[in-house]
Structure formats: structure tokens, C-alpha cells
Design a protein that fits this description.
Blueprint lengths: L7 E6 L17 E4 L3 E6 L16 E5 H5 L3 H12 L3 E5 L5 E5 L2 E6 L9 H4 L6 H7 L13 H25 L6 H25 L3 E11 L4 E11 L8 E3 L4 E4 L9 E3 L4 E5 L8 E10 L4 E4 L4 E4 L5 E8 L2 E5 L7 E3 L1 E2 L2 H6 L8 H17 L2 H14 L9 E7 L14 E11 L18
Parallel strand pairs: 4-5, 5-7, 8-22
Antiparallel strand pairs: 1-3, 1-4, 2-3, 6-7, 8-9, 9-14, 10-13, 11-14, 12-13, 15-16, 16-19, 17-18, 17-21, 18-20, 21-22
């Protein structure tokens, strides 16, 4: 067969401990090469999936440049999303060898098919789909290890012993009707047992403890965004109907290889119907949700004002512009807020982790600026670590970067189930697109604070 007939390959390194659950990947495999560490599968370009999740088990996709040009819009969008989150694409049949970064991923253009070339393994990117592994290993501030209700249950049990024993005996002995104890003791026992059982169902069964921590990055030049979230849940019962996620949300349960098998329904959305979550045991998991949006913060460098262009209110804003840091207070959707400059020595004192560079370091500093009054120490450290990982990828230089602390749960931070008794912290990081740094548009009813 010619390269045009066999023009799409997928390449993986096995085993992949950081991979998510088994989503359907590129099928119709016609040829497989494997070793103890690597595996290659080959498929027709027409069989490539149109959902980016199907590429997450793979490290690299290889195809001819002409095949890439013929991809349908949904298939190209799926590959572009996978690239932006850490995938690697090799296009052969080009005139020369070039490499280009694509946010967290990279595109390599080469002259010959690397699968057939001598020493082809050496040129392939060997990094796994690492963003998931990094996020999964970060600390979670809202983890609950034990369910509540023990104090209440102890009080009910103590009350039962007092009522069914001394009080019950004293009452009927005064009435010279001690034989009634043969009836009242079983009835009181049954009543208190039902009361204690109901109390445990309410406090540990239907009550869901835990929380969510998320960071959303927005590229206003392309209107592309991604929310990376960590969730923790403790409940005494498996959620009725299971966990529900949109069909393009990447689900990564922590230590899922140590848990029982799971049943997923992928018909219309991703539904975790059974498995992974165990009642009474903390369930930690991460989600990655790419989406498009026109929400943004609009900064006017001339007046030092910023307008909240998000649907949710913001609790606080931090901004980096021309090497200086600024902070602002709360603003409802559509409102403007005045930014105050942060003293350079104060910003420099908020030293980020040594291994972070560029916007990763800036993101950590801004988290600390936001968190001085709004977060406790554990929240601040967890948010700073997550923000640094999210921003830790090659990017073009931008002199302006903003961060806002949202007041509410964004739709993109999918937890799959409502955590009714939980805490939340949600950050959004953005890079203004062309025309977004300058003069604010005419006010359309938003107030200035």
C-alpha cells in the first residue's frame, strides 16, 4: 500500500498510568507494531474520530500533510484541541524538517514517513499526555476523609439508653404497671433504631461533602478556553443516576487502577453509572473541559479600569501589564472596577516556586495577590500550584495577563454531581486579544465601582 492509502498512524507508550478511562479511540486498525514500551496502530484518515477524547490514549498522531489538509472540520478541531492540551502531530511529505509549538503540544513537519525511516523512534516526542498526570498529583484543599454525624449519633444512642432504661422503668413503676415494659422496651428500641438509621441516611447518605478547585485559561485571540478542575467527594450513597459529564470532558479518577472496574454510558454524554466511587470513601478525580467562549475581562490602560465580561461575578482581579501588577475588588457581571497598582517590592516578595518560569511565575504571584484576604493558606497554595501547571507551556510573549477569582461555579468545572456541602474556588486566567487593551467600549449600563 502507498502512503496515501495508509496515511494516519497513532503512537503510544504503554503502559500509560496517566491516561483517563478507556474512551473509544481511532478504530479500523489495519496494522500494529508493538514492543515492551511502544505501540503503533494505523488507520484510514476517514476513520479518525471527531472527539478529542479519543486521542488521549495516544502520544503522537502521524499522517501525510495532504491527508491533514483533507480533514473535515470536526476531525481537525478534535486534533487541534488534543494538540493544545499536550498532543503531538507529525506531518510527513513536507520539503523540510520544522517544529512548531501548539500551546502544550507540538507539530513536527518532516520529509519522510517516520514509521518507515531508520531511527524513527529517536525523533518522536516521548512525553505522555502529561497535563493530566500533573494535575492529578496536585494537592486538594477540600478533601474530606471522614463523614459527619458521629456526634449526633452518639447523642441519640445516649438518649435511647436513658429513655428506654431509667425513665421507662421509673414511669411504669410509679404506675404499678411494670409489665408494660415488655411492650415499651421493644417499641422504643424500634423507634430509636429507625431514628438513628434515618439520621445516618440524612447526614452521610444524601449529604455530599468535598469541593472543587478549578483554573480556566482563556485565549481571547482565538476564543478558545479550557477548564482544568480537581474534585473531591465523600458520600454515604452512590449518586442516584451516576455522574454526568459532557461528551468532550476528560475524566481522570485518581488512582483509578486500584479501584474496581467502572461502567460508562457514552451514548449522548459521559455517564459514570457504577464503579470507581465507593460510598464512605473519599473520591478524588480531575476533569479537563475545552470550550469556546467570548467571555473576557476588558482592560483600559488609560483609565486603569477593568470591566467584568464574564457571566459570573468576580470577587477580585489581579492584572500584569508592562511588568507591573495591579489588583481590584469585586465586580458583578458587566461592572467596572478600578485597579490599584501593587508596589514592585511587594510583588517581588511573593516569590513563586523555583522551578516555574515566565507566565507560570506570574500566575503564582497573582494567585497570592488575590488570596491575601480571600483564601486561607491551604487554598492559596493549592490554587497557585494548579495555576502554575496550567500556565506551564510554551507561549508567545504577551505583556498583559489577568486573573480573576469567580464568585460561583462555572459550567465548565464539571463535577458530574452536585456537591451540596462543599467549598469551591475557581480562577480564570486570560490573555487579552487584539484590541482588548486600550479604551473601554461605551458603557452599556455597567456601573463603575
Amino acid at each position: 500500500m502507498t502512503d496515501d492509502e495508509l496515511d494516519a498512524f497513532t503512537y503510544t507508550i504503554a503502559p500509560d498510568t496517566a491516561s483517563s478511562l478507556s474512551y473509544p479511540s481511532a478504530s479500523s486498525t489495519t496494522r500494529t507494531l508493538s514492543s515492551s514500551e511502544r505501540a503503533i496502530s494505523q488507520t484510514s484518515t476517514d476513520a479518525l474520530p471527531d472527539n478529542w477524547l479519543c486521542y488521549t490514549p495516544f502520544k503522537t498522531v502521524i499522517m501525510t500533510a495532504s491527508a491533514h489538509n483533507r480533514l473535515t472540520a470536526p476531525r481537525r478541531q478534535a486534533i487541534d484541541t488534543w494538540l493544545a492540551l499536550g498532543g503531538n502531530l507529525i506531518l510527513f511529505g513536507e520539503e523540510e524538517l520544522t517544529t512548531k509549538t501548539a500551546e502544550r503540544g507540538q507539530i513536527i513537519r518532516t520529509t519522510t514517513n517516520p514509521v518507515l525511516a531508520d531511527g524513527y523512534i529517536a525523533m518522536w516526542p516521548h512525553e505522555p499526555f502529561g497535563i493530566a498526570e500533573k494535575v492529578s498529583g496536585l494537592p486538594m484543599p477540600y478533601r474530606v476523609s471522614t463523614a459527619g454525624g458521629r456526634t449526633g449519633a452518639f447523642i441519640l444512642a445516649t438518649l435511647f439508653l436513658i429513655v428506654v432504661g431509667p425513665i421507662n422503668y421509673w414511669y411504669f413503676s410509679r404506675r404499678n404497671d411494670i409489665r408494660k415494659l415488655l411492650v415499651t422496651v421493644p417499641l422504643l428500641s424500634l423507634g430509636f433504631c429507625s431514628l438513628i438509621a434515618g439520621y445516618f441516611v440524612i447526614t452521610q447518605g444524601f449529604n455530599r461533602k468535598g469541593g472543587s478547585l478549578s483554573v480556566t485559561t482563556v485565549d481571547e485571540k482565538t476564543n478558545r478556553a479550557v477548564t482544568i478542575a480537581k474534585h473531591s467527594l465523600l458520600s454515604g450513597l452512590y449518586p442516584l443516576g451516576g455522574f454526568h459529564f459532557s461528551r468532550d470532558t476528560y475524566l481522570l479518577p485518581k488512582n483509578h487502577e486500584q479501584r474496581d472496574s467502572a461502567q460508562l454510558d457514552l451514548t449522548r454524554e459521559i455517564v459514570l453509572e457504577s464503579g470507581l466511587f465507593q460510598p464512605g470513601i473519599p473520591f478524588d478525580y480531575s476533569t479537563i473541559k475545552p470550550f469556546t467562549t467570548r467571555e473576557r475581562m476588558i482592560y483600559d490602560a488609560g483609565t486603569g479600569m477593568v470591566r467584568n465580561g464574564f457571566e459570573l461575578p468576580v470577587k477580585a482581579v489581579a492584572l500584569l501589564h508592562s511588568g507591573h501588577y495591579y489588583t481590584g475588588g469585586a465586580a458583578a457581571s458587566g461592572e467596572q472596577v478600578k485597579l490599584e497598582v501593587v508596589d514592585d517590592s511587594e510583588a517581588a516578595a511573593m516569590k513563586p516556586q523555583e522551578q516555574t518560569q515566565g507566565h507560570s511565575a506570574a500566575a503564582e504571584r497573582m494567585v497570592r495577590l488575590l488570596g491575601r484576604q480571600l483564601m486561607d493558606t491551604e487554598e492559596m497554595e493549592a490554587a497557585a500550584s494548579l495555576a502554575a501547571v496550567v500556565m506551564d507551556y510554551p507561549e508567545e510573549t504577551s505583556e498583559t495577563l489577568y486573573m480573576a477569582l469567580l464568585d460561583g461555579l462555572p459550567k465548565s468545572a464539571e463535577s458530574g454531581v452536585e456537591i451540596s456541602d462543599g467549598r469551591n474556588l475557581h480562577l480564570v486566567i486570560g490573555r487579552p486579544g487584539a484590541g482588548e487593551v486600550g479604551t473601554l467600549p461605551e458603557d452599556e449600563g455597567g456601573e463603575t465601582k
